[in-house]
């Protein structure tokens, strides 16, 4: 940005220069130079835009520099900064290499059989904290479009033409849950209905209903409920179980890789210990 140095020279004529560079701020002996802002200015930035960018950066830099100076001034005498830096660098390097190993070696495929085996061995970990339900739910703006068709498709207890009902809901419904095998949190379902309509205390008594309130008509049918403290079905916790399986697989992979590397370097006589001296 060819006009930026001119802008700074004219607007900040009293600022100092260091080796041809311009000093934008100083906190004790630490300086912020104009060259450190290279690449921060958009190609289409105006002089006013660039001035605001510089002012914001200088303000943030000054605050950070003051905090750093205060922190260094109050360092405990026994704090070994060089060791902390070495340890942090070592941790970053190791973490990066572990990520590379995982990306190259981890099998992220979890079969249905593996999920079922894990679930059967760990059911006790999946006790429900809140009730869950299998249900059908429709929320449609009221007055309804083609109300008679919807009533026929809903059919007082049994849906005989699922595809037609789904097509209707795609066109008119604001909310439609029409997968009979899916499990939902009762709290999530209750949130789609008028407040207080469905609760853990009354869900078994309200197995099927339709009601109109405000600008909506609601249709609800309960297929199954699992109360609090029962074991959640696999389909409800499948994503959670898959994540645990992959986490365990990743941990095992890294443990094996560490042992593999250690054994290799031990065979090459690149590891020496001196604890017995």
Percent range for β-strand residues: 15-25%
Mean pLDDT: 90
The total beta strand count reads 8
Quick one: overall form?
A: flat
> Which percent range fits the helix content?
40-55%
> How is the biggest beta sheet arranged?
5 strands, antiparallel
CATH fold name of the domain at 128-226: Chitinase A, domain 3
Structural class: alpha+beta
| H/E series | HEEEHHHEHHEEHEEH
Low-confidence stretches: 1-14
What's the CATH architecture name of the domain at 128-226? Roll
Radius of gyration: 33 Å
Enumerate how many helices there are, as a single number: 8
Write down the CATH class of the domain at 128-226: Alpha Beta
> In whole angstroms, how far apart are the ends?
65 Å
Describe the structure.
It comes from Neolewinella agarilytica. This is Peptidyl-prolyl cis-trans isomerase. With about 280 residues, the protein is of the alpha+beta class. Among the domains are: about 5-75, no CATH class; about 130-225, Chitinase A, domain 3. The chain is about 45% helix and about 15% strand. It contains eight helices and eight strands, in the order H-E-E-E-H-H-H-E-H-H-E-E-H-E-E-H. Strands 4, 5, 6, 7 and 8 form a five-stranded antiparallel β-sheet that branches. It has a three-stranded antiparallel β-sheet with strand order 1-2-3. Strand 1 and strand 2 form a beta hairpin. Helix 3 crosses helix 8. The chain is flat and about 85 Å long. Residues about 1-15 have low confidence and may be disordered.
């Amino acid at each position: 940005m060819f006009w930026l140095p001119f802008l700074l020279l004219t607007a900040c004529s009293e600022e100092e220069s260091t080796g041809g560079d311009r000093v934008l701020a100083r906190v004790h002996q630490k300086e912020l130079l104009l060259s450190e802002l290279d690449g921060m200015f958009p190609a289409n930035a105006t002089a006013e835009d660039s001035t605001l960018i510089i002012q914001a950066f200088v303000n943030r830099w000054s605050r950070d520099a003051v905090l750093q100076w205060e922190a260094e001034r109050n360092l405990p005498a026994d704090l070994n900064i060089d060791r902390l830096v070495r340890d942090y660098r070592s941790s970053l390097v190791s973490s990066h290499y572990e990520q590379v190993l995982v990306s190259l070696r981890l099998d992220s495929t979890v079969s249905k059989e593996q999920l079922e085996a894990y679930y059967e061995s760990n059911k006790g970990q999946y006790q429900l904290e809140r009730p869950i339900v299998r249900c059908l739910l429709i929320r449609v703006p009221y007055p309804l479009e083609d109300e008679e068709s919807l009533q026929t498709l809903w059919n007082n207890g049994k849906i005989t033409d699922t595809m037609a009902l789904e097509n209707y809901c795609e066109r008119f419904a604001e909310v439609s849950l029409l997968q009979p095998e899916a499990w939902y949190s009762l709290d999530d379902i209750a949130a789609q209905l008028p407040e207080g309509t469905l609760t853990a205390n009354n869900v078994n008594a309200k197995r099927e209903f339709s009601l109109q309130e405000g600008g909506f008509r609601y249709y609800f049918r309960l297929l199954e409920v699992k109360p609090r403290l029962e074991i959640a079905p696999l389909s409800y916790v499948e994503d959670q179980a898959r994540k645990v399986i992959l986490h365990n697989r990743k941990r095992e992979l890294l443990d094996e890789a560490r042992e593999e590397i250690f054994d290799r370097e031990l065979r090459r006589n690149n590891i020496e210990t001196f604890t017995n001296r």
